[in-house]
Design a protein that fits this description.
There is one protein chain. With 377 residues, the chain is of the alpha/beta class. Helix content is 45%, strand content 17%. The chain contains 15 helices and 13 strands. Strands 3-2-1-4-5-6-7 form a seven-stranded parallel β-sheet, with helices on both faces. A six-stranded parallel β-sheet has the order 10-9-8-11-12-13, with helices on both faces. Helix 4 links the parallel strand 4 and strand 5. Helix 3 packs parallel to helix 4 and helix 8 packs across helix 13. The relative contact order is 0.11.
Length: 377
């Protein structure tokens, strides 16, 4: 079976969650049964490196990746050709420009279609460029009975059903992670970590204010590391507002903007932090949560994220995404007796290993693909 993924970004890009999620999926899938083709833009890639060289570093006989520049015409040309060669077309965005024309092409060619909105239908996400998104939704609804929609959690599944009630099917499979090397580093007391896009939807301003309140309540010196980059104009403007907020609150010694980091250095930052905090207004999953849990680092996540399991498994806190809510959880965590905190780290790692390891869970995707191969066109 041949599976085709048209994407905005793909590993080694770190500009979006699907870049890693789908790379781990495609790298782990049974190559005796499945051929993978990926077509991606150069979004998030090192501009100094040749796209041909980046592709060759990933490519294998049954996992072919092609990176293109920003030309929409070229992307569609290659995309149409790859659809002709494929059995399944798997989209990872509703609003990526090529999705609609490639979806129409795949429908008329009677291909099996999987579409993962990845949080794009959440109310907070729909606010940005709302007119353009309504137009895309209008046309995609025409073809919804030909599409299997993929949700990463039950809440997202319900949202998809609201917008696409005549969908062919809605399946729920969480994101999985390739378990990294667990770093054995010293934990820095009071070190909190945010990783993600510098985007208003991430609620970083709330997190900064939460650090101020937490320090007042606990009398403990905190150090918030903000890891991530601003790429779009409104993200760059937001980052400037955040830095001004830090100055206004006079907490320059408690907040550090680190820019983009990756690889082993990022793993060590995660492992050495007392907690990762994800205060987002909206999040369909949050791969950074898996990255933290895989290092045994507890997570504080807002209730706008699908991470109730943090509370269920006592691996962190699932809290209100307000200054008071985030602050309360920060104080609770840093006030834990050392033995209780270390036990929480053990539970965090076990939660990831037992429930989100790609090696143990790849069969969910393989089962879906095999099911599609037996469905009549």
């Amino acid at each position: 079976m041949k599976i085709f993924h048209p994407l905005l970004c793909y590993y080694p890009s770190q500009a979006g969650g699907p870049a890693n999620t789908l790379y781990w999926l495609n790298s782990e899938i049974n190559k005796r049964e499945f051929d993978i083709s990926v077509l991606s833009t150069n979004f998030g890639l090192d501009p100094l490196k040749s796209l041909h060289d980046v592709s060759n570093a990933i490519n294998s006989p049954r996992h072919q990746v092609l990176f293109l520049d920003s030309s929409r015409i070229k992307f569609l040309k290659y995309g149409f050709d790859l659809i002709n060669e494929s059995d399944v077309v798997q989209f990872s965005s509703l609003f990526f420009f090529p999705t609609l024309p490639l979806l129409i092409k795949a429908t008329f060619n009677r291909k099996k279609i999987i579409l993962s909105p990845r949080g794009e239908l959440y109310p907070a996400a729909l606010k940005n460029k709302s007119l353009q998104k309504r137009i895309f939704l209008f046309f995609i609804k025409i073809f919804q009975n030909k599409v299997i929609f993929h949700a990463t959690n039950n809440f997202e599944s319900n949202i998809i059903n609201k917008y696409f009630p005549r969908a062919k099917e809605i399946i729920t499979i969480p994101n999985y992670v390739k378990m990294p090397l667990k770093r054995n580093v010293k934990i820095t007391n009071g070190q909190l970590l945010f990783i993600g896009r510098i985007n208003p939807i991430k609620n970083i301003d709330v997190l900064i204010k939460s650090v101020v309140l937490s320090q007042k309540l606990s009398k403990v010196k905190l150090n918030l590391l903000i890891v991530g980059s601003a790429r779009l104009p409104y993200e760059i403007a937001y980052e400037k507002r955040l830095k001004q907020l830090v100055k206004t609150l006079n907490i320059q010694d408690s907040v550090t903007f680190m820019g983009h980091v990756q690889g082993g250095y990022k793993d060590k930052l995660i492992a050495s932090s007392q907690a990762l905090v994800l205060p987002s207004q909206s999040e369909n999953f949050g791969n950074v949560v898996l990255e933290a849990l895989a290092q045994g680092t507890p997570v504080i996540a807002s209730k706008n994220t699908p991470w109730q399991s943090l509370t269920k498994f006592n691996a962190g806190y699932w809290t209100e995404g307000s200054v008071d809510g985030i602050s309360k959880s920060i104080v609770q965590l840093i006030d834990l007796p050392k033995i209780d905190y270390l036990k929480m780290r053990d539970r965090a790692y076990s939660l990831c290993l037992n429930n989100f390891d790609i090696k143990s869970n790849i069969f969910h995707w393989e089962k879906l693909y095999k099911k599609l191969s037996h469905v009549q066109k």
